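Researcher: Here's a chain I'd like modeled. Treat it as a single chain, no partners, no ligands.
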Amino acid sequence: MRKITLDLDVLRTFSTGMELGSFAKAAERLGRSTSAVSAHLKKLEQQAETSIFVKAGRGLALTEAGETMLGYARRMLDLNDEAITAMRGSELEGWVRLGLQEDFGESLLTEVLGQFARAHPKVCIEARVTRNADLLDRITSGRLDLALAWSNGAPSTPHHQHILDVPMCWIGPAAESDNWQNSDDPLPLISLEAPCLLRTAAIDALDRAGIAWRLSFTSPSLTGLWAATAAGLGVTIRTPFGLPATVQRLAPQKGGLPALPSLGLMLHRSEAQPEPATARLAEILLQSVNAIPRLMS
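Model: Modeled as a single isolated chain. Structure tokens:
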């Protein structure tokens, strides 16, 4: 079989266009003409020796081969960018204090720290996984350099950046349990201890819908929240990110549960102009967070 070397510039055009949902927008971001972008897409199909796109109305959709190619393209570009950063940024030194919500403590933290440590081995990271209120307090007081936290749109810290909106959803046990549905008793609600943005959102939604509820279980951590939900003690509210296999998303109409709004995800900085090591960690964190919609789909 003839070996083919894929063109990374072509893969970047392809990946950027899919990320933005428009190859016209990709052309603008990459500083290329639309004809150059079209040439890249044609070259990609030639190199792949198969169709990458199929007509879908007025636009294009990926074929099965295209979906496979997109996954590999993202991985190859990530590795390429990591290699360049490692060569150019190995001189970075210092200390960065990072704070994350519990939702991101396992998968995202491992990915971010691993990528950053490989590229910048001389930088030390102190990571703290804690609740929203504590993260914001530590950013404001200068005890954290960066923090990834939820937001309900209310004023927060002086230096923050809105990243994306994540849908909130009702969560129940992975094993079907409809005890709470078939009862005339108030809805059993499982929640983190107050203050909690998602707890407030759940209560507000239930009250607006005229649904009686009771707190059946409260926990200071997500571990307790997931255990109680998996055991069938009630339903809880969270985002689709970081759900364990023991629980599942519930359709809003299931049991007459009300629809829920989205929750903002913010990156907070303690300083307007952070140190180079902090700025680089923020960049890697944003790259990982931008993959969240793909992980939740």
